[in-house]
Fold:
Amino acid sequence: GDSVTQMEGPVTLSEEAFLTINCTYTATGYPSLFWYVQYPGEGLQLLLKATKADDKGSNKGFEATYRKETTSFHLEKGSVQVSDSAVYFCALNRNSGNTPLVFGKGTRLSVIA
Amino acid sequence: DADVTQTPRNRITKTGKRIMLECSQTKGHDRMYWYRQDPGLGLRLIYYSFDVKDINKGEISDGYSVSRQAQAKFSLSLESAIPNQTALYFCATSDPYGTGGYEQYFGPGTRLTVT
Structure:
C-alpha cells in the first residue's frame, strides 16, 4: 500500500542554520505530495504542496520539489528561525479521489537562539 | 471563527466511561476524518466519511464508533474508554472538487486522558 517515510527526529538547529527534512514515498501512479506543520498546542496546517512531478511547492521560506525519479519530497529552508520550531509531517494522496491522506510519522524540529 | 471546530478541547475521563468527541465544520466539505496522534506514531486514521451516508473504517477503528449527523458534523465515540486511548484526537475535512491535491483542513484537536 501507499506509505510515507520521514527522517526521524528530533532535529535541533541553531537559528539561521539550513534545514533539510527528508521524505520518501511509495505509491502507485502519480500522487499529490504535501508538507503539514503542527505548532505547539495547535492542529496541523498545510505548509506547501506539489501535485505533479518536478513541481516545487513553497511557503514561508520553505521549499520542496516533487522528485518522481527518487520518489522524494524533501523539505528545505535556507535559514530557520526560532518560530519554525514545530512538528513537520509529509503526506501523500493518490489522487484517486477515494482515499484519505497518508501521513509520515512526523519530524520534530527545535530551533535554538 | 475557525472553519473546523472540536469540542471539548480537553477531557479527562475514567476507564469504562462512554465519551463523545464532536467536530463541526463551516467549510461546506463533504469529506470528514478522525485521526489520533500519539508521540512517535504520527497520525493514524480512525474513521472517515465521504458523505452523510458513507462511513469507512481507518487503520485503528477498534474501540471507536462514529456518527455523521449532517454534512457539517462528525462525532467520534469511545463506547468504553481505556487508558491506551489517551491521545490527541484531530478532526479534518477535505473537498475533492476544490483546489487540486485533496488538501485536508484540520481542527485544533481534543486532548483526551483516560485514567
About this structure: Chain B is about 0% helix and 55% strand. The first strand of chain B starts at residue 4 and ends at 7. The interface with chain A takes residues 4, 33, 40-43, 45, 48, 50, 58, 90, 92, 94, 96, 100-109 of chain B (CB under 8 Å). The radius of gyration of chain B is 14 Å.
